[in-house]
Structures are given as C-alpha cells and as structure tokens.
Amino acid sequence: MSVMNFDDPRLTAIGLLTEVHAGLLGRFLPVLSAAGLSEIDFETVIRLARSPNQRLRMSDLAAQTGLSTSGVTRVVDRLEREGLVRREACSSDRRASYAALTDAGRERLEGVLPQHIQDIDDCFTGLLSESELSAFLDSLRKIRAVVRPCATAGAVEAEAPVRP
C-alpha cells in the first residue's frame, strides 16, 4: 500500500490559487456590482476594450471568456440591451459578427476602473515587487497557454493582405 503525501506542494499551489481567486473576487465583485456589472459582464466589456478597434468576433469572444457560443450570445444580448455593446456584421464573412464596445460601455468602464485598479493594487499587484510581478505574470501566461490556449483568440488584429 502506497502512502499518499497530503502535504504535496502541488496540492498547496492549487489550494492557494483557489483561495486567492475567491478572496480577490470577494473584494472585486461589490465594486463591479455597484456599477451594474456582473463578473462576466465586466470580463466581456474589458476584453472588448483591450482588443483591436475595441471589438472581437463573437467566436473569439466566446473563446476568450470560456463561454459557449450560446452563452456569449446571451451575455452580448444583455449588454446590447443596456447599450454597452453593439453587434457589427463582418464584411468578409456573412456568418460571422462582431461584438463592439459602445461609448456607453467605455463610460461604464471608465467609471468602475479607478476603484477596481486601486483594489487590484491594494490586495494583489501592489504586494509584489516589480520583478516578482513580472515573474508572476510570465508564470501565469505559461500556465494559461496550456489550460486556456484560446484565451487570447482575436486579440491581435489580423494583418491586411499584402498586395504587389
């Protein structure tokens, strides 16, 4: 019979990550909620804001958020009703459409980001030195590349075709 090591550092790593995630959400959600944004609403509008032309193909938005295509459609429908996002047709593919951030969506983000960034700094990034933060971000990107390789789908604008 083998003896299991319950103090395995891999268990500690995932346990700490889970605890930190829960603690950070507990800190962030009241601020987002006060701005009328759920966690997925915020993730959607911030991803759009940080994307080329502040828009993403719906399929890329689904991949980035980890939502199904029907799930991202429901979120975008709700955000569109609130005027935070609009749909745009794709000129090169009639089957595809984009979700684009509206002026109202940008204004909502601008209203919530100062406090959100302050909270991030107070209980997360501000606790780390510049080199610790850089190493931490590199580590997170390495892990994300394995567990969510589609998390940056559409984040880099496709280059225009080169014409002779």
UniProtKB/TrEMBL annotation:
Gene3D superfamilies: Winged helix-like DNA-binding domain superfamily/Winged helix DNA-binding domain
UniProt GO molecular function: DNA-binding transcription factor activity
Domain HTH marR-type: 1-145
GO biological process, one term: response to stress
Coiled coil: none
InterPro entries, per database record: HTH_MarR-typ (IPR000835), MarR/SlyA-like (IPR039422), WH-like_DNA-bd_sf (IPR036388), WH_DNA-bd_sf (IPR036390)
PROSITE patterns in the cross-refs: HTH_MARR_2
PANTHER family found in the cross-reference section: MARR FAMILY REGULATORY PROTEIN (PTHR33164:SF99), TRANSCRIPTIONAL REGULATOR, MARR FAMILY (PTHR33164)
Record's protein name: MarR family transcriptional regulator
Organism of this sequence: Nonomuraea zeae
